[in-house]
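Quick sanity check, GDSL esterase/lipase:
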Amino acid sequence: MASCPSSSSLWTLQQQKILTLLLYIVTLFSIITSSAGCPYTTIFSFGDSITDTGNLCFGSPSPPSHGCLAPYGETYFGHPTGRYSNGRLIIDFIAESLGIPFVKPYQGIKNGDVRNWTKEEGVNFAVSGATALNVSFFEKRGLHIFTNDSLSVQLGWFKELLPSICTSSSGCKNVFEKSLFLVGEIGVNDFKLFFSWGRSVAEIKTYVPHLINAISSTISDLIDVGAQTLAVPGNYPLGCGALYLTWFESNNKNDYDEYGCLKWLNNFVEYFNKRLQAEINQLQELHPHAKIIYFDYYNAALPLYHFPTKFGFKGLKACCGAGGAYNVNFSKGCGDEGVKACENPSKYICWDGAHLTEAANKLIARYLLKGSFTATHKFGDL
């Protein structure tokens, strides 16, 4: 991780870079609270651990220690909630900004562990470890996975629950015109699987159209059911994450940028995000009556990694882990016996290697709610 440059001219340039990023404002908060004088009162969400508020923990016969046991949740909730952080996620901060309850997990509602859910609240279908692609995609290529909580499965859960939310097309229209649909982020677990099976970046790029199609199909299906406003996040700069810095640690200095992030991995994520944005643009043209917003998680998070001290952070290490250069140990991780979290998680960007702290989630959510790092093909009369 590079410290502040000694050259004043270079530092001025870096300040300008920050300002350029932070001044890209298209006020999302006004989007989600103004339009037709109808603030959104409901959130329906799909994705993986970045958005999961408890589905994996509630839906597993033997919940994993990772995410489901202390010290997860210790900062805000005081106990584990199934969120992969020490506290609130981006979806929680979005809910707070709208003045609505945190979005409850579908699996907890289904099995009765969450008993105070009402149909006016919305539902979270995101599951930690979920892939964009179905298990059949992997199996056809001789690749085996042990879970199938893909986007299409989550969409199926949504449709199963739909009669409990609304019973007529007009009733659904009334609910969904006040609903924000959060689709993602998703795809990281697909990439992790491909990398773990030794696939090259060149080969994985050939799978990207399939991932984009899976996300696009989900968006289209939701619009067909009645969704009117959808936010679709891209992926984070994985090359700055403690898990990936440990996994792909290299002796070649050229693999890293000046901030200590893996260039090749971030380049790949940018490749994916650009294609996702292009697909969103096409979908917006096909569905002009809907509002499809791109959430730029990548550029919202990047300044935190590039200039950590400016945001009160220490650097790239994980807060909760079992040692190593980035406090990531693949044989033992956060939630396992004997593994402790750092004393002050608010000083860290990374919580457990793969996920962010509440402090980082809060900053990213703030940017998104201000409209920084959001985009849509057509704003129309928003």
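Posting the structure with no commentary besides this: The longest strand covers residues 42-46.
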